[in-house]
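Fig. S4 source data, part A: sequence.
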Amino acid sequence: MGVLDSFKRQRITQGLRDRLTGISVLPIEAEILVNVRGRVYVVYNDYTAHLPERIELRMGAFRSKGIGDCVLDRPATRPPLEVTETHRGKLAVRLPDDEAILRLFGIEEVLMPVWGYLFRPDERHISGQYVRALFEGSLVRGPQVFLQSEEGG
């Protein structure tokens, strides 16, 4: 799970091109995010405690075009985050609508959901399915670090 702190939007047009004319036969316009800065939260356990300090990966569409290269840097000095209290507020992240996942990240109660869908790849990452998810702006009771703003106590 993660939170975007800053980014810029950019539109690109891709599509099948006629080899003779070079004109797109079926152009597809996509909006991409560039210069993205954010925070990724990983559940701390015996396995994740030994993750490297730097992870490089590719995510999103148009990976073959070089879009989606990401670098995750773990601050070496930051101890694991411990959630001791929850607050009422608007969710700043997206989470699958799965009781076990919500509990894992400390979401105690969903008061007013904003629904959407996230893609969940299969174990081989070849295909997958779309699953219902809580999106940003959902009113929940959970850890302050995952909330946009605090509304009441």
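Fig. S4 source data, part B ends here. The chain has two domains: 2-15+25-73, 87-150.
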